[in-house]
Amino acid sequence: MHPEGCPRKQAAVDDRDQLDDGFATGSPDFRPFVEPSFFVPAIIESLRQHPKYKTITFVVPGEADAYCAARVSRLGGLVLTNDSDLLLFNLGKGEVAFLRDIYQRTDRQIVCSFSSPRQIAADLKLPPSEGLLRLGYELSRSPHSTLSEVQKSCSRAITNNSAYEKFTKLYELPAFSLLYPLDNKRFRRLAALDPRVAEVAVPMSSRLSTDPDHVDNVAMFLPLLLENPSSGSAWEHTAPLRQLAYAVLQLLNPRRETEVLEYRRVQELSQKGRSVERLSTTQIERLSQTFLLIIERMKSMASTYSVSLWHLVGIAIETSECLRLEKQPFTWNILQMRHDPSMTRTNKIPWDIIHFSAHLQAALYSLRMLSQAMFTFSGMVHDRGLPCYARLLQFELRQLPPLAEFPDIDDAMQLLLLPSKDSLVREFGTALHLPMTCTLESQSSAKIKKGAASQQKEHRPRISAPSSERAMKANMFGLLSIESD
């Protein structure tokens, strides 16, 4: 970690006039600090909105390899992938092309080399009944063997039939009817979700009977964000949005006891997830009303200052939650500060700006999760509806931007450098009944040099930590305080 800031080439700064050349040779200028946070769902969403591809884009449960293999096995065609495991499926006349083998000719035509598992097996003189599957099995048993040694093993009798049978089950093709279950409303609703949201919605909507004394754990791996690793997680104070999303999904099967465990900066089950408290129907309605109130209050400001409504909503929800917890609201503090325009051109972007951008992304994705949870419920449950305020909130969330328009670091800097930002800050603070600082100090690029930390700490806006009772009275969004019934 660079203490002076995040190198610009490691941040997803959108120059808006430059596109990454996927066929360029040499070392790329852009080396991301973390992988793009919403890469997979953004691609799926773009394909579904594209006039050419929207009717042929499908999302399937589990790994897509077997479904792609089943399709080309029956209909022929080419699977484009980075996974060599596709070669082990029985593709029939189907073929495989690897992304690394795609290149652009001098005439700018895109071409690729492809592999035919059937032809490769014939060239290696492998038994037609087993093909490359047997080769893969022997290679898994002796990963350091040479190709000739593995070929010899394939010519011998199988020594462990149970192990071989277990291996082959990994590459069985699913029933072709599962590829297009368009008559299944539940499947269509779940397939429309972001993959990470679907991984939570599927077990919560399952009708499988469980021990009434047993609580099923459901893991939610939140996307990794480019944020300041020395600060708290950017997901922390928009947790009420996701808590409401999980509560709506739990309504799909209210008799089933499920506990959601959130993983924010780790992506492994071996780590300890953070348990999310389950909400009652009354709490769902109360929290929905709170978020509706916030959205309504932010609409006029967004229109007046020509800024994103959802940026303001995210900051407002996070600030209100911080006040409820008697903590300093990070995004509100950063929004109040004046910032040097030179930060848009420096080689290193201050970590506070990086972290501010991450908070905006966390807020918008939490809103997206809530919207998708409500979409799933309304499409799968017909004998009962969402509570009144939740239905109204669902209508408002339909205006959320697509993932391709989610705030990036450039958007965050534009908001912080808004010419009329001082007026926006005053109106925002008045709407939320927030304490204001007397002076909006500057965070210039010079302050990220030697001695920057002490100067910024001295001039950072402060909000005195209120008591719980005073916070509820001063903060019009005190409904965010969730009490048990």
Automatic annotation (TrEMBL):
It comes from the Eukaryota. Residues 445-468 are annotated as: Disordered. InterPro entries: Asteroid, Asteroid_dom, PIN-like_dom_sf. Residues 36-270 form the Asteroid domain. Belongs to the asteroid family. This is Asteroid domain-containing protein. It comes from Ophiocordyceps camponoti-rufipedis.
